[in-house]
Specification:
With about 140 residues, this protein is α+β, with helices and mostly antiparallel strands. It has two domains: about 80 residues, no CATH class; about 35 residues. It is built from three helices and five strands; from the N terminus they run E-E-E-E-H-H-E-H. The strands form two sheets. The chain has a three-stranded antiparallel beta sheet with strand order 4-3-5. The longest helix is centred in the C-terminal third of the chain and has 26 residues. The radius of gyration is 32 Å and the shape is elongated. It starts with a strand and ends with a helix.
Length: about 140
């Protein structure tokens, strides 16, 4: 199930949590019904935009914005989520130098290879794999 969070500029709109780093714009499209031209069909949807796309479409002059909205097929647009204004409590400001503690020294204990079950298992696996490859080579040569 996808987690939804409220948008930061318009909390009544919910957006996907994984898309919280994108701009979200509420686009309104109007289309005229030929059988009833006095009541247009209005559709509202929220679309995420990458920073690059958002700047290309909306960070320009008003005339260019109108043209870009026509290209998208929308009659109006409203920003509902701005990722630059998002509060990030997870990030902390680091002040001063970072001090690391020295790790505890490791102690190596000698284990005899004949009694170590891990070494025995590896040797048996290596022998089994070597036997399989030898059989495969023989089969390939016979063909």
């Amino acid at each position: 199930m996808k987690k939804l969070i409220p948008a930061n500029l318009n909390p009544s709109v919910e957006i996907k949590e994984r898309d919280r780093l994108f701009y979200h714009v509420m686009l309104e499209t109007r289309s005229i019904n030929p059988s009833d031209p006095t009541h247009p069909i209005v559709k509202i949807e929220v679309k995420p935009f990458r920073l690059k796309d958002y700047q290309r479409i909306f960070a320009c002059s008003t005339a260019d914005q109108v043209e870009n909205l026509k290209i998208i097929g929308a009659s109006s647009a409203t920003v509902v989520h701005d990722p630059t204004k998002e509060k990030t409590p997870d990030r902390k400001l680091i002040e001063g130098p970072i001090k690391f503690e020295k790790p505890a020294p490791f102690t190596v204990t000698e284990v005899k290879e004949e009694t170590d079950p891990v070494v025995i298992a590896r040797k048996s696996e290596d022998a089994h794999v070597a036997k399989k490859t030898a059989v495969r080579k023989v089969i390939r040569r016979k063909r």
